[in-house]
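FIELD: query
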Amino acid sequence: MNVIYARVSTDEQKKGYSIDGQISQCQKRYAGMGITDTTEYIDDGYSGEYIERPALDRLRADIKAKKISRIMFYDPDRMSRNLTVQLILADEIEKTGAEMLFVTGDYDASPEGKLFFSMKGAISAYEKAKIRQRTMDGKRGKATKGKLTFNDRPLGYDYDYEKCNYIINPLEAETIKLIYRMYLDDIVGTVALSIKLTAMGVKTKSGKNFSGGTVYRILKNEMYAGTKQAFKTYDKKISQYKRKKEKRDPSEWIPIEVPAIIPRAEWDAVQDKLAQNKILASRKAKHDYLIRGMVVCGHCGYAMIGTTSVKESNVYHYYTCSSKSVYKRPCEARLLRSDSYDNKVWDTLIKYAKDDIDFSQAQQNSNGIDTNKISKHISELKNRQAAITKWVADGTLDINIAGPQLQAIKKEIDAAQSIVKQERPKKIAFDRAEILSANTFNEKRKIILNLGCKFALTKDGIELVF
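FIELD: result
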């Protein structure tokens, strides 16, 4: 059987590639050989990067069954733009004794012919990679000029094609404002809020009911506060039919200014509540840490996290400084038994409640954590960052080596700056009767979260931080 294989991807269709043109050229080549009876295998709209394609799958099965005597391709890149895939297909064809032909030029089975075939495939793969790089560079250049690289049609906005930016859709913007207002005013989660919206008849941009996930994504989207992060994620193609969304390192993000629907202070307040609700949800916690998520290191100011240790079949739970365990930087903090410090915190609240101590006064008397150490550390990190950047510019240090170092430094700077930034005033919810009547862990945990404070821990004791 004499066959023709033709392929074009979705992107190539837009650039003028033609299935009909490939078939016509292959038939013309066959006609010159006196062959007019041919069978066609066509993959229309399929990428050549992966080997799994409907028509190619059928062709490979027929090759293995030795039903094929000749296979005509317009060019090796119609087999695939991936050299590995090309070599696999060529090997399968060669093993059955079938003849492999190309309109643009044949390659014999000699070492030289195989070398040129491999070179052709490598060049094709290189060209595809360069096209991707140029496309990405163009998009990045556009983003750095404050222009959106694509329109993802978000609720609350229309798209201005001339300015390449969003413009507020007044009617849809009211829905966004409603969602933020209801979330801040109601003691409900995103799922319950979506149910309320459905009951009110509020719809998404496509006219569907809101789901909890959709509400959550709207509440987390910084775009509504005026900043759209470009290059935050990318689609990783893991097969012909599957893509996986991956998150880029924050150092690669490019902020683009868009019209704000929600005031920044309101957006920040929503993020605080989302974080608090996440802390309150104990389904992921392997142990009941009473002040989990509300603990900072009294020495360096970084967050403290819960950890478990097993010694001689005994299980112990501790609070440990994240600057040591996560960022691998020196800190004087030791492992602190969580049960001991949880009890100390609760005993302090009981004392305040019984002695009728003014909790607001306790806030005023609290000196908080010393942020001078953190600020000094930030300066050291920025100096190191500047030095590495200079070395790259001078050619002293290779960018491939410097890149991961710069990304790690930026992560630590961001973490440190989030600690020293000015905190917004928080509402104090100190209910003496509620504290004195609390018995269960969940009751105590809820009270701790509602206080609006954090606890700075050292081996010498506990300090309230507002």
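FIELD: remark
DSSP finds 17 helices and 16 strands in the chain.
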